[in-house]
Structures are given as C-alpha cells and as structure tokens.
Design a protein that fits this description.
Layout (H helix, E strand, L loop, with lengths): L2 H32 L10 H22 L3 H30 L12
Helix pairs in contact: 1-2, 1-3
Amino acid sequence: MPREIDEAWREVGRHVEELGSRIQEHFRHQMQERGEPPAPAGQPLADVLEALSRQLGSAVGAVGEAFHDQVVRERAIQASRAFADAVEASMTDVSGRMKKPRKGGARRRDR
C-alpha cells in the first residue's frame, strides 16, 4: 500500500480515537451526574442486564448530548473528512493498478 494511503488511514484512526474519547468523556460525566456506577462483578444476571440496559441508554444519550458540544461536532467532521480522503486515495490507487497492463501481456478469457 502506498505511503500516502497508509498515512490517510492512520489519520482516520486518530480522528476516530479523538472523537471516541470525547464521547466517552460525555458518557462518564452523565453517569456521574446520575450516580450510576458500572455494575460490579458477581451480581445476578438480571441485575447485570438491567444495569447494562441503563448504561446503554445513558451511552446513547451521551452521544446525543455530546453532539451539542462544538468540539465533538468538529471532531466528527474531521473524522468523516479523513475517512472520505482515505477511501478516495485507496480507490484511486486501486483504479490505477487496474489500468496497468499485466506483465506477460493480457490474456482474454472467453467463457
């Protein structure tokens, strides 16, 4: 893989990691405000599932709340642009490779 494409995908990873960190901060803040600690180990399954359900609801709420944060919106835009750039670079590379003639001449297959 050409270096530019490899770097483009690393940049996508960096942006997504930053965005995930910001959303995680919002989730932790929301959990602290509600006074809901994570479910401790050793609890009965029903209690764990109930706690998981509450936490999932909180996580979804935190994501929604996080997107009211200007920094989170900017990170999401940067991540999506980096992703689009990486896909474009990858497709350009693949397209260029497909257009190159194969060594030894092209063979036609008739089916």
